[in-house]
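ok so i was messing around last nite and threw this chain in just to see what happens. nothing serious, just curious
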Amino acid sequence: MNATANIMVFRRRSIMVFAIATFISAVGFLWPFFISSPDNNVQQWFLWSAVPVALAVLLVEISNERLDAKSVALLGVLAGVASVLRPLGAGVAGIEPMWFLLILSARVFGAGFGFVLGILALFVSAFITGGFGPWLAYQMFAAAWIGLLAGALPQRVFGRQVRGKSEIVVLVIYAIFASMLFGALMDLQFWPWALGSNTQLSYVAGGAVFENLHRFIIFHFATSMAWDVPRAIFTSSLTIFAGPAILFSLRRAYRKAAFVSPIEFGNFADKTIERAKAQRVQR
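result:
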């Protein structure tokens, strides 16, 4: 009897690579607040190149995981659906239907699955939308973190399983948070390059942390609320209306695919031989 591995379980080495890649990507997002040298072009380009490299290393490590055919198929299907959903609302005030599917899938299949699904969904959608550029690695990491956190939401509170209306409430709150988080992260990687150096909201090379933080907050709320708020409303609304049905379907797929159920391989050769012998005796 062989046991089917869970959908996505990282080994120790994978966890270490994941932690290093996450640290590098976090530095790539937050560098404007801790690089103090006024002459920071070299540091900027280093961080812009380091994040894609960290992502590539992480993807290589994930590809070395021993995923069975069912896990690969499920990842492929959900990543394909999410990547198709994303451009349906692209360019319309930040409305992107993929986020609610990512959150619900991670909720059912776990944090590791949500992390990988976020990466794959954004990568595949780049082929559809032509969205390749230095920002893609940042988008992939941001989506991966959203999937990771969604999968890490508690399944039980005070010993009671979170299901039904209470689960939808939790997921709606998280959908609003995730929508705002994605907008803030995208602004972080865009802001230092967006305004030049001659405005009151520009990034100040070598400036104090609190000064740049103040400028970024004003820039973010002045430019992104028209995108982040509709994204939050749309994602949370989809979670309310379609969430129960999607969760039921995903959990049914989880049970039917028997990801954690034991697999029993019967000795079909011996049974075939015995059946043939029995037929000869009858003749």
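not much to say yet. The beta strands are 2-3, 156-157, 160-161, 262-263.
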